[in-house]
Amino acid sequence: MNTILDRRQFMRGAAVASGSLALAQWFPAWAQTASEGLRPTLPTLSGEDITLTIARQSMTIDGRPFRAIGINGTVPAPLLRLREGQRVRLNVVNQLEQDSSIHWHGLLVPAKDDGVPGVSFPGIKPGSNYLYDFPVMQSGTYWYHSHSGLQEQEGHYGPIIIDPAGTDPIAYNREHVIVLADHSPLSPEAIFRRLKVDPGHFNFQRQTLAGLFSGRDQALNERLDWGQMRMDPTDISDVTGSTYTYLVNGHGPFDNWTALFTPGERVRLRFINASAMTTFNCRIPGLKLSIVQADGQNVMPVEVDEFQIGVAETYDVIVTPAEDKAFTIVGEAIDRSGMARATLAPRVGMTAEVPPLRPRPVATMKDMGMDMSSMPGMESMDMTGGGARGVDPSAEQNASGRLSAAVIAAAPSAMDHGAMSGMDHSSMAGMDHSGMAGGMAGMDHGAGGHEMGAMNMRDFSAAPQVDRNPGVQTISPMPVDRTGEPGQGLEDVGHKVLVYRDLMALERNPDVRAPSRSIDIHLTGNMERFMWSFDGKKMSDVHEPIPFTEGERVRVNLINDTMMGHPIHIHGHFFELVTGHGDHSPRKHTVIVQPGGKVSWDFTANAVGDWAFHCHLLYHMHAGMMRIVSVRPRGGVQ
Amino acid sequence: MIRHLPMIVSMTAFMATTPAIAQDHSMHGMQTPGAQSSQPEKPKQDAPQADQPVPARDDMPGMDHFSHDTAASPAPQSADTRTMEDMSDMEGMDHSGHNMSGASGMQMVGTALPVGNTPPPPAPTDHYADRDFPAAEMAQARSAMMKEPTFSQLLLNIFEYQANKGHDGYRWEGEGWYGGDINRLWIKSEGEGEFGRGIDTAEVQALYSHAIDPYFNLQGGVRQDFGRGPDRTYATIGFEGLAPGYFEVEGALFLSTKGDLLGRVEGYYDQRITQRLVFQPSVELNFSAQNVPENDIGSGLVNFELGGRLRYEISRQFAPYVGISYLQKTGGTARLARLAGEDVHATSFVTGVRFWF
């Protein structure tokens, strides 16, 4: 089969797929319902002068119209295909009725071109334009999005591919961009307001009496304990499939965006999580995924069956489908309230079985920073919560759940906890988690000198720098490094899931000096008031930046005092994760700090300017989980 | 096609020297050099080659071209870092230090190196973007970004028809607020009446609300009564919030312009039966420090009320319900009611809707 034939079949298939041609105008070529895929030689928007026009538009998802903000008439925005070493002038025209902006996520650009209103520039007024002009100093998969208000939620995002100046160490025959996103019929302002006035508003997978009576989720005593703590263990995602449709390249799960391949080819899939609030668990049943790049930085290939991608992260994956058959690309929302779905197929019109949504996870004590499994004598304790007991029978998932041929009603079978010896929570009757102070006093396994009795849900002595205010619901008494864990809900999926510790940089790190100092930053929040902050202080409270001196190397310890994972992003810099890989530490621009966990990274503050530093969950950032970091030349004068 | 060769080979060679943990994954992503192609126009050539098995590492041609600067000593380095991992596990409790000084003697590189304790620089007082843009425009954008948003909500937890023996009535209980996370203006209102008789009792409170902990607000302001009897005005102070166990509770003291002191404690619990079917038991107790004959109130516990309402959340914002409500007057208040020939207790079947916007 050759490409000419491919194209004819593509056209025929597209004509058959009713309506898809009519919709085609809304999507760039690489994102149309069926895509032959990109070739390295076939750019979408490239060159040194590019004009991008931001405007309101509508888009059709699964046959329904939605309001959106697009660029040059498309959602996602056009693919920018640049080459390392070139210069690019991007003329961004704002045709919205409000200020807008574009931030080039992961690109190392001068501070004035970073695109954060109020930090790097004043923003782009309605009806005006801004000329970004910078040299392209890197290669890899990146993306761009609005940094104004909540526009990103409405479709203001697009992919960037930068081809390396030299040879690409990653070999592939064909490539596809997979832009994952979440889209709602509600305006983002309405979503934010509902979160503020009614926390848990979008969670339709709570624990209920029906679940208790049918032996699902947590046992009664555990529920009472968590109720005493006023923590909801089913609060996995703030905004869920109850309002979101999850998208691949702007297409809903029933649109079934299809990426084509020829059997035997090495297909490079460039996954970009451009969603506002959704952490995705990605897999392609039947194919091994070879992770070759993370956040635009090449890594030693790691073969996995599934990976979790936080908001704003990117992963490049090589798959080599040998058979002449279709495969389903699954991007399952972390709370399993829905999925993004696409198909990888030799020909248009072929589909593969869609796996059912798996049961949503239940948060554990470890997610609250109480890792008792690391205590001597408590290794056998089951910290996995109620997962083994299945999920609430009345839990609701969005329409994508119906795509599965064999929808199994909340099958708990996939998780075999039976092997885990004896001590599950239900049998730990004597362990009263509720005690706000010293409730666990009776459990002092003193051998390691650990003071279990000191465990307290809000003990500020564990985080003296955190401001003590109503915005801080909990302090993790024992946060642990969870970079060796696959992420919430993926502990027991029965196959290899990527963990951060698997990632090793392909090249030696550019700066391998020891950090000259370290800082701790606590990720704090109050789920009951939907308040989010760093060190207990919201963006609106703090007007002083976190200071760095140009050229200094600093270790940043992120400590998650909340029960929710946060993808933390720093502008203008890459950092090296401290995950035990020395001078081959993986370099990233965004990292998920798991609930109750901590992540350390080293970075070189080498970009003079003021930079945004924030949680990339859009509404967390908007609620105040953001800071400005400043980098100034030594001596403070310039 | 050919230009990719050296990099591929060097990568493969590099992996050959990495420890087992990395090798497990390394080969799968790589193709034999002969199968490399970024030219999909020639799938006929590529396809069969792609099926070639990956040769064993020591068969790999071109190993000698390996000149990657990452090669320094990957194996020992990785061994070190493994040890470091173990160490950090041992140090599990110490999240502040990350002090690896105990590892001296081992060969350490990059992120395995110990962290220094240089003091941080002072925070700059300037805004960097002011160099490139007009300071006034930047100040405007900054204040827009730094501004704390405000919100508002109007919730009617009870808005119902009460079927009672002989005289059917109605009842409402709701609240509205406006403000930020910590400070809010809060309006509360509740009341009831009988059809054909007008409003029986009603009150409106205007309160300033201040968050005092993650779950509770302290509230103070004024309360104005309406309905039958004299319309009293009170100064009020109280609290409301979420108690352990997910109980919504509130309590308040009311001091009237006549010097009378009243008190109230109430609470409810939302028991989810399914995701949308919710049973809400509730209790309310009213107290008085003295007799207030004009309002038919005796001192002590004035009355208590028990309710149970079963609602179905068509949406989170709109939930019709049915339920039962039991009111019992007590003590001096009950005596006054008997004297007036009124009921001391009443059971009502209720139907209404809980909604907010």
Description:
The complex is a heterodimer of chains A (638) and B (357). With 638 residues, chain A is mainly beta. Chain A has helices at 3-16, 20-23, 188-197, 209-213, 220-229, 618-623, and strands spanning 34-35, 49-61, 64-71, 80-83, 87-94, 103-105, 129-135, 140-145, 157-163, 174-183, 245-248, 257-260, 267-273, 280-283, 289-294, 297-304, 306-309, 314-319, 327-333, 339-345, 480-481, 517-526, 531-534, 546-549, 553-560, 566-570, 575-577, 587-588, 590-593, 597-604, 609-615, 626-632. In chain A, strands 21, 22, 23, 25, 27, 28 and 30 form a 7-stranded mixed β-sheet that branches. Chain B has a domain at 211-356: Porin (Beta Barrel). Chain B is built from 6 helices and 13 strands. Chain B has helices at residues 5-16, 20-26, 43-50, 74-90, 135-146, 331-339, and strands at residues 151-163, 169-179, 183-194, 198-211, 216-227, 233-243, 247-256, 261-269, 271-272, 277-288, 300-312, 318-329, 345-356. Chain B has a 12-stranded antiparallel barrel. The longest helix of chain B has 17 residues, at 74-90. Chain B is elongated and about 90 Å long. Mean pLDDT of chain B is 78; it is low at 1-106. Chain B: It comes from Edaphosphingomonas fennica. Chain B: Keywords: Signal. Chain B: Residues 26-124 are annotated as: Disordered. Chain B: One of its GO terms (cellular component) is cell outer membrane.
Question: What topology does this entry show?
Answer:
The complex is a heterodimer of chains A (638) and B (357).
Chain A: H1 3-16, H2 20-23, E1 34-35, E2 49-61, E3 64-71, E4 80-83, E5 87-94, E6 103-105, E7 129-135, E8 140-145, E9 157-163, E10 174-183, H3 188-197, H4 209-213, H5 220-229, E11 245-248, E12 257-260, E13 267-273, E14 280-283, E15 289-294, E16 297-304, E17 306-309, E18 314-319, E19 327-333, E20 339-345, E21 480-481, E22 517-526, E23 531-534, E24 546-549, E25 553-560, E26 566-570, E27 575-577, E28 587-588, E29 590-593, E30 597-604, E31 609-615, H6 618-623, E32 626-632
Parallel strand pairs in A: 1-12, 2-5, 4-9, 10-13, 12-20, 21-30, 22-25, 24-32
Antiparallel strand pairs in A: 2-3, 5-7, 6-8, 8-9, 10-11, 13-18, 14-17, 14-19, 15-16, 15-18, 19-20, 22-23, 25-30, 26-29, 26-31, 27-28, 27-30, 31-32
Chain B: H1 5-16, H2 20-26, H3 43-50, H4 74-90, H5 135-146, E1 151-163, E2 169-179, E3 183-194, E4 198-211, E5 216-227, E6 233-243, E7 247-256, E8 261-269, E9 271-272, E10 277-288, E11 300-312, E12 318-329, H6 331-339, E13 345-356
Antiparallel strand pairs in B: 1-2, 1-13, 2-3, 3-4, 4-5, 5-6, 6-7, 7-8, 8-10, 9-10, 10-11, 11-12, 12-13
